[in-house]
Write a structure and sequence with these properties.
- This protein is of the alpha/beta class.
- The chain has two domains: about 5-85, Helicase, Ruva Protein, domain 3, CATH 1.10.8; about 90-285, Rossmann fold (3-Layer(aba) Sandwich), CATH 3.40.50.150.
- It is built from twelve helices and nine strands.
- It has helices at about 5-15, 30-40, 60-75, 80-85, 105-110, 135-145, 155-170, 200-205, 210-215, 230-235, 255-260, 285, and strands at about 85-90, 90-95, 125-130, 150-155, 175-180, 190-195, 240-250, 270, 275-285.
- The strands form two sheets. The chain has a seven-stranded mixed sheet with strand order 5-4-3-6-7-9-8. Strands 1-2 form a two-stranded antiparallel sheet.
- Strand 3 (about 125-130), helix 6 and strand 4 (about 150-155) form a beta-alpha-beta unit.
- The termini are far apart.
- Bound molecules: S-adenosylmethionine.
- S-adenosylmethionine (SAM) binds near residues 100, 104, 153, 154 and 180.
- S-adenosylmethionine binds near residues 104, 182 and 229.
């Protein structure tokens, strides 16, 4: 069987099985390509027009890839948990079930520099609140060579995964971690706070596809309107921001709940591939009217 046929057949199997996407891919073709290429130890960015796609695979190779596709279907685990690798803005991160699969849109605004106009040139201290596997703090450290990052999370398990990623990216001298409920262990003030908190409302939590239920509920559930964590954060965060500091906050599809909870708060909505209402930027001034 040719590699291209195997990927096509795998995509059909994933579609038929109605697996859910959203952990690095959005469709069966991309998910099949990812899993098959990974199973065969081929580069994930192999071009589909590349000759590699026309090669005939051995029966052992076909069996290896088919076994991974079968595992994806029967376990409903996100592909990233099966491969223990997730990609965000072209950067690879270790991941396992102890932490949510990284997919934050804040990674896009860091990569595109869309928050740069709001950052003070002397920005040095950055807080990655709810750090999970550490990906946002690490991307910030890679984007801004002069910063140091503190990553906080309530989950010891997630912090263990974050530590693996800090070491993988050689950032142990610039990013540290602490177990913290919200801002409790956020010492001092920060020039930039990144936060992708748990924000899924109770109704949406009860309707999540099986793939999302493989992730720690602590990483997703935000209470009845999704705003439990955000509400306490916005009450306290101003004291942890320098006067020129900004908070970059992801709220996903929960903008109506966010605006209902904070009707008077002035925020700047940042453009992302998912639209202009998923990530916002809040200045220190807006938090201390
Ligand atoms: C949506 S995940 C984001 C993880 C990571 N920043 C990312 O973008 O992939 C939310 C994270 O918040 C953490 N968390 C939940 N409640 C928390 C709390 N009260 N204080 C600190 N972290 C909390 C969870 O353990 C989880 O790692």
């Amino acid at each position: 069987m040719k590699l291209s046929s195997l990927i096509q057949q795998s995509a059909e199997q994933l579609s038929l099985a109605q697996v859910a996407f959203g952990h690095g891919t959005t469709n069966a073709a991309d998910e099949a390509a990812w899993l098959v290429l990974w199973a065969l130890s081929l580069a994930l960015d192999t071009d589909v027009s590349d000759d590699a796609f026309n090669v005939h695979l051995t029966s052992a190779q076909v069996a290896t890839a088919q076994s991974l596709i079968a595992q994806r279907i029967s376990s409903r685990k996100p592909a990233a948990y099966l491969t223990q690798e997730a990609w965000l803005q072209g950067v690879s991160f270790y991941i396992d079930e102890r932490a949510i699969v990284p997919r934050s849109l804040i990674a896009e605004v860091l990569a595109e520099g869309s928050i740069d106009p709001w950052l003070d040139p002397s920005t040095t201290r950055v807080l990655d609140l709810c750090t999970g596997n550490g990906s946002l703090g690490i991307l910030a450290a890679l984007a801004y060579p002069n910063i140091t990052v503190l990553g906080l999370d309530l989950s010891k398990d997630a912090l263990a995964v974050a530590q693996i990623n800090i070491e993988r990216h050689g950032l142990a001298g610039r990013m540290t971690l602490a177990e913290s409920d919200g801002l409790a262990k956020a010492d001092g003030v920060f020039d930039l706070i990144l936060c992708n908190p748990p924000y899924v409302n109770a109704k949406n939590m009860s309707e999540l596809p099986a793939e999302f239920k493989c992730e720690p509920a602590l990483a997703l559930a935000g209470g009845s309107d999704g705003m439990d964590f955000v509400r306490s954060l916005l009450q306290d965060v101003a004291t942890q921001l320098s006067p020129q500091g900004v908070l970059v906050l992801e709220i996903g599809n929960e903008r109506p709940y966010f605006e209902a909870a904070f009707p008077l708060l002035e925020v700047v909505w940042l453009e992302t591939s998912a639209g202009e209402d998923q990530v916002c930027l809040i200045t220190h001034a807006a938090l201390t009217p």
